[in-house]
Design brief:
The chain is mainly α. 31% of the residues lie in helices and 0% in strands. The N and C termini lie far apart (37 Å).
Length: 48
């Protein structure tokens, strides 16, 4: 088997939900953090 071959397990459940909204209730701290980061200027992080 090749070193970069990834086997497929068709019985495997999702590792994450299709949408995080299914797991995180409204008002969860994670939504606040996502909103705060979205408002930040991140140009320096993405510079080459």
């Amino acid at each position: 088997m090749g070193y970069n071959f990834i086997e497929c397990n068709r019985e495997q459940q999702y590792l994450l939900p299709p949408s995080l909204r299914d797991w995180l209730p409204e008002g969860d701290l994670a939504w606040f953090i996502l909103d705060a980061v979205e408002q930040m200027d991140l140009k320096e992080f993405y510079k080459k």
